[in-house]
Design a protein that fits this description.
2 domains, alpha/beta, Hypothetical protein af1432, 9-stranded mixed β-sheet, 418 residues
Length: 418
């Protein structure tokens, strides 16, 4: 199911007014504000949308500041992030105790950086200050003389960078620069903006089943079987691989390759991020989107045709081509634009765009077959394999449809999918 995605972004600049990084902000619409009820869901939502939109699109080569409270870091959803480009902002409302200090120490040792958001000094914050790389001071909370005093006292004890937040005038920027601030954020440079894109929303039930399968160390073939019931999830997995965090040079030719390339742990954490970010509104079955139902049937049919009449070595690529042949329709974009978003094997993209190669012949056949143009379909089929008949394909397609219906009735129970 197609869904709009949003994320807020505000630049952070240095003393020369060059962009140093961006604070990434939770947004649930194109309105430039957020009503945050649950910190974990908000942080997971920011991460989910960063993975979907891509690091390069959102940040270019800059640093991302992401709001968190310490206990969220323990939810195993952060390890997908490129640590050299991430600063975790510890919210001023965070509970600071020995557990929080221990969590932050652990992530510092992994190579992540930390900032203190809207900092107000308190004795309980001292261990955290020593672990921090940045301190953000809301200049609206204090007089200029108080800010000068705070900055001088902290600079005497801590080797960290100081960021002036909510700077609204250029003359204020010059003043805070003269005090010794290193970074700045505020309306004088740019208000937060809301960026939007379109993604696909997988079934909540499928997310839960896949995550549980990972936790049970299930065989990858069975994991694949679960993924194959969600065109949305396959598309988003390919988008994740195409993001800056996973800038692989190789082209993806199969679902198995995509999962192995990212690794069990990373895919599991990515699934968990989507679970935490979900509002659980999409718990329903596949019947809610007939286009994506068709993608499942078509991809299984193409896979089976390869296994029976072309080459088993082509089956994985055929399955992926079948899935992707509907994704561009759901997103409302061309194949050319789709393949700018995901990094798939040229054999797949060439087959879908120009019907090239053996896989292209199969794509062309499927188009004629589903248009009920059996005369043209039969001519193409004879080129693919002279011994295959339209009746053979009707049987394969019927089996794929029956499989889908059986799974829908089962409610996506894992044992029923394998």
């Amino acid at each position: 199911m197609k869904k709009p995605i949003y994320i807020g972004r505000q630049p952070i600049i240095d003393n020369d007014k060059n962009i140093f990084g961006y604070e990434m902000l939770f947004r649930s619409s194109n309105e430039n504000f957020a009503n945050i009820v649950d910190n974990l869901s908000a942080t997971a939502g920011v991460l989910e949308n960063i993975y979907d939109m891509g690091f390069t699109t959102l940040m270019s080569d800059k640093i991302a500041f992401i709001n968190v409270v310490p206990h969220i870091l323990n939810q195993e959803i952060m390890d997908l992030l490129p640590k050299e480009r991430i600063v975790f902002e510890i919210l001023e409302t965070s509970k600071i105790d020995e557990t929080a200090v221990s969590i932050i120490k652990d992530f510092k040792n992994r190579g992540f950086s930390f900032a203190l958001d809207d900092f107000v000094y308190g004795k309980e914050w001292e261990p955290i200050i020593r672990l921090s790389d940045y301190v953000k001071i809301d200049v609206k909370q204090y007089s200029k003389s108080e800010i000068k005093e705070i900055l001088l006292s902290l600079k005497n004890y801590y080797k960290i960078k100081f960021l002036a937040e909510k700077v609204e005038l250029d003359e204020d920027f010059k003043f805070y620069k003269s005090l010794g601030f290193d970074l700045y954020q505020g309306y004088f440079f740019q208000k937060p903006s809301v960026l939007s894109s379109v993604s696909l929303d997988p079934s909540y039930a499928i997310l839960i089943n896949i995550f549980n399968a990972f936790q049970a160390n299930t065989d990858i073939k069975q994991i694949e079987t679960l993924f194959k019931m969600s065109p949305e999830l396959i598309f988003r997995l390919l988008r994740l691989i195409n993001s800056v965090a996973y800038d692989f040079a190789m082209k993806i030719s199969s679902l198995n390759q995509a999962i192995v390339l990212l690794g069990y742990d990373n895919v599991s954490r990515w699934i968990l991020t989507m679970i935490f970010a979900s509002n659980k509104s999409n718990k329903g079955n596949l019947g809610s989107d007939p286009i994506l139902e068709s993608a499942i049937v078509k991809s299984r049919t193409m896979e089976a045709i390869c296994n029976n009449f072309i080459s088993k070595n082509l089956a994985d690529k055929a399955f992926l081509a079948g899935m992707l042949s509907f994704v561009n329709v759901v997103l409302g974009i061309s194949f050319e634009d789709l393949f700018k978003k995901i990094n798939v094997d040229f054999m797949i993209s060439n087959a879908l765009i120009g019907h090239k190669g053996k896989l292209g012949e199969l794509v062309e056949f499927m188009e004629a077959f589903y248009d009920s143009d059996y005369f043209s379909a039969n001519n193409i089929l004879k080129k693919i394999n002279p011994f295959a008949t339209i009746n053979d394909i009707l049987k394969i397609d019927s089996d794929a449809l029956m499989y889908l219906e059986a799974v829908k009735k089962s409610g996506y129970g894992f044992s029923n999918l394998i």
